[in-house]
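MODEL INPUT / OUTPUT PAIR
PAIR INDEX: 1
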Amino acid sequence: MLVGVAATVDPLEARLLPSGSIRIGLVVPVSGVLGPMGPCAINCAVLAAEELNAAGGMLGRPVELVLVDGGRPARQVAAEVSELVATGTVQAVAGAHASDVRVEVVAAIAGRAPFVYGPPYEGGGHAPGVYFLGETPDRQLAPGIEWLVGTRRARRWFLLGNDYIWPRLVHASARPLLRALGATVVGEHLVRYGEAMHLLDRVAAARPDAILLTLIGSDLMDFNRAYAAGGLGAARFCGALEEHGLPFTSGGLTAWISFWRNLFTRKLWF
């Protein structure tokens, strides 16, 4: 067992202080629209590092996490991660952040250090030393949409997401699937961060049976809470729902992520 090792290290401290540990760059958002998920992501990573160290570390060396704020502009994040890899400050990188950040990080460090990306993503983007753990739309969407169309009779769909690569490609995958099931897309919008609330009336006016939400972070939280507070009844299918999106949503949410699918329960609604 390796004890007395700091679980997280500031990037500046990591640059200045040499260490016999294996340092992993932990890229998670602690600011921006995904900032609310940051503490949970950090806690999960710290738990993993503690378990590794309790079992003897990696190659007999303790593991430390070097925290990088993945909520900043994508190129800024990638530049910091690239510098940490180039200077040998970190020997590997793990990330839970938006896909636009992932694209830039992969471009900056592929083949130079292992990079593990955990969240659902849009597919593609393979590069040397890059490992994806999350679902792609072809695996994630069909079970949930088929269940909603078949069980909940959701025939009219509205697609609403943030305007970046993951929502764009999720929507592109959802449209032919909905058509094949006899469902109709009655509206679709991609919005910049912070602007989802302006679409609430437009979504309600379309009278959807279900809404495919590819909003993320605080945008998803705010929309779900406002939708529930307005007494609107359409089912909401969220591809990136996590615990912060649940309070005050008044039910009607469906999440289809491997975590939920692997639970020993048939309860799919929250």
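PAIR INDEX: 2
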Amino acid sequence: MRPFCDKKDPLPISMQETEPDNSRMLEALKKKSAASKKHMADAISFGQYRKDGGSNV
């Protein structure tokens, strides 16, 4: 009976331990940072209007 009890089936490949190639948290932070930089680049700067001689404003 002992030979039948000690047998272990190998784990499926999807359940075996693997080293991650990237971090979900870091990917989310990079995506948020890129969106934030794009948002800042799209912002309007009114300081340039005054420098161009907008004294009648």
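PAIR 2 NOTE: Residues 29 and 35 are 10 Å apart (CA to CA).
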